[in-house]
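>> Question from a student workshop board

For tomorrow's exercise we were told to take the sequence and the ligand below, predict the bound structure, and bring the output to class. My setup keeps failing. Could a helper post the expected result so I can at least see what it should look like? The ligand is zinc ion.
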Amino acid sequence: MKCRRCRQPAAIEIRRHNAAFCPPCFEHHCIEQVRKAIDEFDMVGAGDRVLVAVSGGKDSLALWDMLVSLGYDADGLYLGLGIGDYSSDSAVYTRAFAEGRGLKLIEVDIPTEFGFDIPGAALVTKRVPCSACGLSKRHLFNQAALEGGYDVVATGHNLDDEAAVLFGNVLRWQTDYLGRQLPVLPAAHGFPRKVKPLVRLGERETAAWCVLRGIDYQVEECPNAVGNKHLGYKEALNAIEDASPGSKHAFYFEFLSKASKHFTPQAEAEQEGLRPCTGCGAPTTDQELCAFCKLVARVARATQAEAATKAGKAGTG
Ligand code: AMP
Ligand code: FES
Ligand code: ZN
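>> Workshop helper replied:
Here is what the output should look like for this input. Compare the format with yours to find the bug.
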């Protein structure tokens, strides 16, 4: 197989583009896909300060690398989630990347700063860990961006992620989520703009990017994700994509161009009536405390109750 761009021997085939590339032309292809997504959806303006949410995995490290290569002013944000070795190893990869390139990395460690970890929050709330995790990420991405004066938060969601989320939302016709499933959410109501510049790249491509660029990344999935629905949807879509290359891209991009607008009014209506959280000032539709402040308070109460029980037992024992 020959490289589509330079006719040298190809190293990677991308069936949905009916193309193959040699290593340098593959890098060019990835950068062009990101540039195209940014332009098409007006993701980042000239002079914008970008905060890249980096997990230490291939997608977000590749994204940070690509944004810097494209000349954007992009700092990183890593959240310590307290998920055992998975979190401590992810932090090591993220710091090594930032230090190796002289980039600024902001770190927020949830256990140190808020007194809980994601597995502990899951026990207290009796819900899956991903629920407290998603809530904390959304809240802390916004907070870090506002505190640091960033215009936009970029995440490493790629085409495989977005197609799988869309598939799950369509299966259950979750119209409220469908209205917000966009590659750009504009800044509004005190929230910074949120963008997903990797929507035109699949995870095979971001992994290959990291290998070619010598980026070491966390290969392990989060232990809480193993066997979850999202991974099942990805596998189902991969089977469809194998049989019919380009299906995933069409599914997601045709949704954006033809269907998403039907769901945005509902999503926008739900943003009405936001008011500042009495704990942290973040915009919320809840009464008084936002969902994150409630979570922090709830875990603190459970921890105090547990300590009191232990002290009582020690006293009587
Ligand atoms: P996930 O929700 O794990 O699928 O991750 C989606 C995106 O959220 C990643 O591509 C990152 O941009 C961001 N992200 C996930 N985990 C973290 C983390 N611990 N710290 C900062 N950003 C993260
Ligand atoms: Fe959030 Fe796994 S990364 S629960
Ligand atoms: Zn709050």
